Amino acid sequence: MTQHEIGPYSTARAMRDAVRAKEISARELVQLHLDRVEQTNGTINAVVSLDPDRALSEAAEADERLARGEDVGPLHGLPFAFKDTHEVGGWRSTSGSPLRADHVPERDELVVERVRKAGAITIGKTNVPEFAAGSHTFNPIFGTTVNPYDPSRSAGGSSGGAAAALASGMVPLADGSDMGGSLRNPASFCNVVGLRPSFGRVPQWPNPNTWETTSVQGPMARNVEDLALLLSVQAGPTSRNPLGQETPGSVFADVEDLSLHGLRIALSIDLNGAFQVDHQVAGIVGAQRAVLEGAGATVVDEAPQLAEAEDTFRTLRAWHFQASYGAMLAEHPDGFKASLADNIRAGENLTGHDVARAYRQRTALAERMRQFFEHVDALVLPVSQVPPFSADQEYPADINGQPQETYLDWMRSAYFITVTGCPALSVPAGFTQEGWPVGIQIVTAPNTERRLLAIGRAIEALTQAGQRRPSL
Predict the structure, then answer these.
(1) Which residues contact 270 (CB under 8 A, 6 or more apart)?
(2) Residue 252 CB contacts under 8 Å (≥ 6 apart), including other chains
(3) β-strands 121-126, 79-83: how paired?
(4) Exposure string for 48-61, b = 16+ CB within 10 A, e = fewer
(5) Could you tell me which CATH class the domain 3-467 is placed in?
(6) Which of 10, 49, 93, 158 is catalytic?
(7) Of the residues 182, 188, 198, 384, which is catalytic?
(8) Catalytic residue (one of 83, 97, 135, 177)
(9) Closest C-alpha to 337, from 101, 84, 130
(10) For this structure, is 259 an active site residue?
(11) pTM for the complete prediction?
């Protein structure tokens, strides 16, 4: 592939290989993406704290290292914009909060350090909701990130800037984090791929709540193979986190070929009536039955019983937010959006018994999933219960006429899976009649990311939904 064949929608692997082969320089590749940002970001508002001069300077240094014959990393020369909740040394990192509007950390956090050491070139940050709370990306500093497929709609969140930047061709790879769906929901809304890994797969440092096990970091990309490339850099053991898994990240660099023939796949629209699902979303998810059966899989109408997931997630989320931001809220009572302040305060009255109950329920949920996956290879269900909603709303007011009382209600399809501890992959599946993207969530047993990625790539190749680009 020559320089002239590399474009903003080329795969990350093709871009990386072209830089290594000196068919395009890192500086030219970064400039190509900076041009794309200039063309599209004014509408989408996905990339923030952009610094073209610093990015081009980093790219020039990358070209010099390659010219000297030095060993280069697996992401050498690829432009990258980090989620604005992830600290990048020397770069403004606001977390979408006015309380951190001028925050410039001195060092990289681990997930950033690994990506930069692998050769990626920092061009800026990606937009987030305030402190990554909620699955719609807006904040008082940078405003709202909108959907590349329809700028009147939400890009999701909290990794909404990352997903929208990927879908717009502004970056070839992106990072994110996920507590209640923040990697998966924006991937579904923006027709890209997002992985919530098993806990400890991508170790976090520094983290004042290392032992809290609902929030993870992970990769996003436009296809499963590129996502696996980024996961191979993010994952792997570290002495800085006692819960990090020992499996080296390099095992994820290549996705194994897998036939769906003979696999037993459970398909569920609503986990046995556990939540409402928009009719069009339900239709797209239900249509996967024919896709899977056409590839030789056995599709069964089964779903695990996850009734405790509601109380478990909401208790642990409130506990986490109170521990993280309670002191800050007390000092700045008007410094938070109302929904986030309410969630923080919900943790104030939790008792040790409440938290213990939540963890006992997590244990029961995990055991139930272990038994479920003894006779099923994967579970397929909606990522989000709704298609992209209006960007003017904080969250969808109703689903099929049923009111959604809080900004969490419509995210059950994602956060019910969170508290099972299973890895979950969002893969493009289709579009509503309005042209809004809808993804499916593929779930496998804990610590089976290689298997999950192989299944995801096989389904991705069948649907081809991820090949449809926005008309920007």
Answers:
(1) 276, 277, 282, 381, 382, 413
(2) 228, 231, 232, 235, 449, 450, 453
(3) parallel
(4) bbbbbeebbebbee
(5) alpha beta
(6) 158
(7) 182
(8) 83
(9) 130
(10) no
(11) 0.97
CA dihedral sign, ordered 88, 92, 94, 96: negative
Joined tokens for residue 225: 């193979």
Whether residue 97 lies in the annotated active site: no
Is cis: bond before 158, omega within 30 of 0? yes
| 443 Cα distance to chain centroid | 14
List CB contacts of 118: < 8 A, sequence separation 6 or more.
Answer: 73, 74, 75, 76, 233
Listing DSSP states for 385-396 in one string gives SSS--BTTSSS-
* Residue 129 contacts residue 160 (beta carbons within 8 Å): yes
Q: Closest Cα partner for 262 from 376, 409, 157?
A: 376
Query: Do the beta carbons of residue 80 and residue 115 sit within 8 Å?
Result: yes
pLDDT tens string, the chain, 472 residues long: the values are 455 599 999 999 999 999 999 999 999 999 999 999 999 999 999 999 999 999 999 999 999 999 999 999 999 999 999 999 999 999 999 999 999 999 999 999 999 999 999 999 999 999 999 999 999 999 999 999 999 999 999 999 999 999 999 999 999 999 999 999 999 999 999 999 999 999 999 999 998 888 888 999 999 999 999 999 999 999 999 999 999 999 999 999 999 999 999 999 999 999 999 999 999 999 999 999 999 999 999 999 999 999 999 999 999 999 999 999 999 999 999 999 999 999 999 999 999 999 999 999 999 999 999 999 999 999 999 999 999 999 999 999 999 999 998 889 999 999 999 999 999 999 999 999 999 999 999 999 999 999 999 999 999 999 999 999 999 8
d(Cα 162, Cα 47) in Å, to the nearest integer? 8
Q: Backbone dihedral region of 87: left (phi > 0), alpha (psi from -120 to 50 degrees) or beta? A: beta
Closest CA to 84 of 53, 42, 48: 48
169 forms beta bridges with: none
Of 399, 165, 398, 422, nearest to 269 (Cα)?
399
Give the domain ranges of the chain.
3-467
CB 130 within 8 A of CB 84: no
DSSP-assigned beta bridge partners for residue 378: 265
Q: Pick from 167, 161, 184, 164: which is nearest to 425 by CA? A: 184
Distances (CA, A) of 42 to 8, 78, 79: 17, 22, 19
> Which pair of tokens denotes residue 126?
């990606």
> Has 158 been annotated as catalytic?
yes
Within the chain, how many helices (H) and strands (E) appear?
A: 14, 17
**What is the spatial distance between Cα 151 and Cα 68, in angstroms, rounded to a whole number?**
45
